[in-house]
Design a protein that fits this description.
Keywords: Flavoprotein, Oxidoreductase. The protein has 299 residues and is α/β, with parallel strands linked by helices. Helices cover 26% and strands 28% of the residues. The protein folds into 2 domains: 178 residues, FAD/NAD(P)-binding domain (3-Layer(bba) Sandwich); 111 residues, 3-Layer(bba) Sandwich (FAD/NAD(P)-binding domain), CATH 3.50.50.60. The chain has 8 helices and 17 strands.
Length: 299
């Protein structure tokens, strides 16, 4: 079985669905192939997005897909195992063995979070441990907030966390000492500094969790924010001849165009880590550019 579309969007999160909506409204035939690996799939709610602020994340994405189907967008729950470009078409083979062909391809495949080696973190990730202060700190204002971080970014996150609570603990994730200037600023913000390394995390039945340190000094916290290591999901771009840099990203222009004609990238996979509203905006921007290119650029 072979299916042919103007555009295939790989990834059905905020960026991918937004791109598909704009393209379908531009009278292009669109298929979304989504394996359900959205970065925010473990987060319970969407925040800082007018109109859907506080809405359940899985329900929001489900509603997006229902809206897309009203525009004739074909949606498939599957993953793409391989991609080649031949005879002016992208040829995509799904994990279920279906061959899909398209004139243009958008990768909205997002990124994968590689979490620090803290025993107990997996059960708490997306529930009591998050990566974005601006996405979720408001819901914990006045609560005990832990920040686990390293270097300048960790220090800055600890200072920022004090905007939402006066009860902030900063866990220094590296062996490097905090500078005198940083220490002074943290103390002025009322941030407690915990230099002892974390041994493990224990979830609490009534919410929050306990951070256990090697020193034996434990703290019950309501939430923790940390910056995980990010790996983009761009293996399909590599299959199509795009060169990945040392961080796993590919060269793009400001419209999401790659060096491979007809191949575009939007959302977190671009290297810009968006909140949901920003990812949706990026998907819309890339889709509009793709439609323009389909009319005025000769490949």
């Amino acid at each position: 079985m072979i299916e042919l579309f103007d555009v295939v969007v790989v990834g059905g999160g905020f960026a991918g669905c937004s791109a598909a909506l704009s393209l379908s409204r531009s009278s292009m035939t669109v298929k979304v192939v989504d394996a359900g690996y959205q970065r925010n799939r473990l987060s319970s709610r969407v925040y800082s997005y007018l109109g859907i602020d506080g809405k359940h994340t899985p329900a929001t994405i489900s509603d997006f897909k229902d809206e897309l189907e009203l525009y004739g967008v074909s949606i498939m729950k599957d993953s793409i195992n391989s991609a080649i470009f031949q005879e002016d078409l992208f040829c995509l083979m799904t994990a279920s063995g279906i061959l899909i062909k398209c004139r243009y391809l958008i990768l909205a495949t997002g990124v994968q979070d590689l979490l620090p080696a803290l025993p107990g973190i997996q059960a708490l990730w997306g529930r009591s441990i998050f990566n974005c202060l601006y996405c979720g700190a408001y819901e914990y204002r006045g609560s005990r907030i832990a920040v686990y971080g390293a270097g300048q970014s960790g220090y800055e996150d600890a200072i920022k966390a004090a905007s939402w609570s006066k009860d902030v603990i900063f866990y220094n994730a590296t062996e490097s000492a905090i500078t005198i200037q940083q220490l002074t600023r943290l103390e002025l913000a009322g941030v407690v500094i915990e230099d002892s390394k974390i041994s493990h995390l224990i979830a609490a039945s009534q919410g929050g969790f306990t951070v256990c340190s090697l020193s034996g000094k434990d703290h019950h916290v309501d939430v923790m924010f940390l910056r995980s290591r990010i790996v983009p999901r761009l293996s399909l771009a590599s299959d199509l001849g795009c060169e990945l840099d040392s961080a796993g990203y590919i060269q793009l222009d400001r419209f999401g165009r790659t060096l491979c004609p007809g191949l575009y990238v939007c959302g977190d996979a671009t290297g810009q880590l968006f909140q949901a509203v920003g990812a949706a905006a990026d998907g819309n921007k890339v889709a509009r550019q793709l439609h323009h290119d389909s009319l005025f650029l000769v490949r």
